[in-house]
Amino acid sequence: MNSPWRFFIVVEALLFLLAVWQIINNAPLLILLGIGLLNVYIAANRKKQSKTKNFQLIVGCLMILISLLNSVALWLMLVFAVLFIGLKGVELSGIDFSKRSFWQKKQIIMVETTEPQDHGGKKKKQQWFGNERIGNTVYEWDDINLSILSGDTIIDLGNTILPKNDNIVLVRKGFGRTRILIPTGIGVQLEHAAFAGSVIFESKETELRNEVLTVFSNDYSDSPRRLKIVSNTLLGDLEVIRV
Q1: What are the backbone angles phi and psi of residue 25, rounded to the nearest 5°?
Q2: pLDDT at 191 > cutoff 90
Q3: pLDDT in tens, 35-83
Q4: Is 222 buried (19+), middle (13-18) or exposed (0-12) by CB count in 10 A?
Q5: Sign of the dihedral through C-alpha 19, 20, 23, 29
């Protein structure tokens, strides 16, 4: 699936159906759940506030809770939710809790840039599947070249400083969503080709059907730092966001 959250919802829905089936096939749990729901309904429809109403409401909620907690599928739902949010939720949101620590609230990070130098070259392994986020921490800028078969990608340029003149981001993808976060003050040129998908650029959405889109930001000609984004996607959306 293109969206991990869609996968999460489907799995949770299947586990919920399994929990309902387990309760229906367990007569004591079904009776306990029914009595609990009946108590909550009666207490909620009582107009006058009284101790009896509050007691009946609490007893009804406890009966519902006990009947649900006796379902193995419900525990599987909770375990899967904790694992998914712990492993994927924080990753997709881009939240770095280390930066929110109280001892780092007054921290100042200085990033120094240098002129491009001659290098002997390097080789980097790329993953074909899965979600990826570039730019969680402060990093030295280097032109980005990505090739991904399937997955969601986030490229955050807020934690780096682009050198003056032209910089390049090249993304080739089969399926998935791509989001590129760009600081203000950088001129952007976008060339995006897609078999099917949409592009959001400068708060304007464009649908593509086997088409190529070339657009420029309003400040492209006057910006000392410029970024050229070249993207090719079979099925998926591209979003360029100013931060």
Answers
A1: -85, 5
A2: yes
A3: 888 888 888 887 777 777 778 888 888 888 888 888 888 888 888 888 8
A4: exposed
A5: positive
DSSP string, the chain: ---HHHHHHHHHHHHHHHHHHHHHT-HHHHHHHHHHHHHHHHHHH--S--HHHHHHHHHHHHHHHHHHHT-HHHHHHHHHHHHHIIIIIHHHHT--GGGGSGGGTT---------------------SBS-EEE-SS------EEEEEEE--EEEE-TTS-PPSEEEEEEEEEEES-EEEEE-TT-EEEEEEEEEEEEEEETTEEEEEEEEEEEEE-TTTTT-SEEEEEEEEEEE--EEEEE-
- Global pTM reads 0.50
Average pLDDT over residues 130-158: 81
The position carrying tokens 């003050």 is 185
| pLDDT score, position 103 | 44
Cβ-Cβ contacts under 8 Å for 20 (sequence gap 6 or more): none
